[in-house]
């Protein structure tokens, strides 16, 4: 039996490109972290009032619904990946991006709370966060510049040719392949 393909229905790969397992894992970890932080800090609610702590908890709490909505969108898309129309995938894909951006704002709330731990820990946390962010940006930027080298690496046919074309490591003998 030949099954006709409707041009308006997306492929499974298109859905999985937008709703990847990696994004699901990150959002699940973030939701669990925020839940744990709110739980722990709710047990300490009778402690001395701190505006910094309240602000951080408020940010974390206000981003959690967006984490939950992202998870619901992800589940919906993956469960209906063979029935979704392209326009529907585009809509829920755009909504999921908005939810991700707002959900990642919870890290700002966590940073605000951790900044108040001590006068030494806070500035070091901010400084290391900036260095980590710049390192990631540098690596991503340098990988886009070296895309011509990657295309040459992908054209190689054997592991020996990959080792010869690998410009990341001068000594490629330690490579797993």
Q: For the residues shown, what is the average pLDDT?
A: 81
Q: What oligomeric state do the depicted chains represent? A: single chain
Portion of residues in beta strands equals under 5%
| Main beta sheet strand tally, sense and closure | none
Gyration radius (Cα, Å) is 22 Å
Spans of at least 5 consecutive residues whose pLDDT stays below 50 are 171-177
Which H/E pattern describes the elements? Answer: HHHHHHHH
Q: What is the β-strand count?
A: 0
Helix and strand content put the structural class at: mainly alpha
Distance between the termini: 43 Å
How would you sum up the global shape? flat
Count of DSSP-assigned helices? 8
Helical amount: over 70%
Number of domains: 2
What key phrases describe this protein's structure?
single chain; 177 residues; mainly alpha; 2 domains; 8 helices; 73% helix; flat; disordered C terminus
What does this structure look like?
This protein has eight helices and no strands. The protein has 177 residues and is mostly helical. It folds into two domains: 1-116, no CATH class; 119-167. Helix 3 packs antiparallel against helix 4 (86-104) and helix 3 (51-79) packs antiparallel against helix 5 (106-115). The protein is flat, with a radius of gyration of 22 Å.
């Amino acid at each position: 039996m030949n099954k006709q393909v409707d041009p308006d229905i997306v492929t499974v790969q298109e859905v999985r490109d937008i709703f990847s397992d990696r994004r699901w894992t990150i959002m699940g970890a973030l939701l669990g972290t925020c839940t744990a932080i709110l739980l722990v800090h709710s047990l300490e609610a009778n402690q001395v009032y701190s505006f910094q702590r309240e602000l951080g908890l408020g940010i974390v709490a206000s981003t959690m619904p967006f984490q939950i909505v992202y998870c619901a969108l992800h589940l919906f898309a993956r469960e209906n990946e063979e029935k979704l129309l392209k326009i529907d995938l585009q809509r829920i894909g755009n909504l999921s991006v908005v939810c991700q951006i707002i959900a990642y704002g919870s890290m700002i709330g966590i940073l605000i709370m951790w900044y108040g731990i001590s006068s030494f820990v806070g500035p070091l946390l901010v400084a290391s966060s900036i260095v980590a962010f710049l390192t990631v940006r540098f690596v991503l930027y340098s990988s886009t510049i070296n895309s011509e080298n990657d295309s040459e690496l992908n054209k190689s046919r054997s592991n020996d040719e990959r080792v010869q074309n690998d410009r990341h490591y001068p000594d490629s003998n330690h490579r797993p392949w």
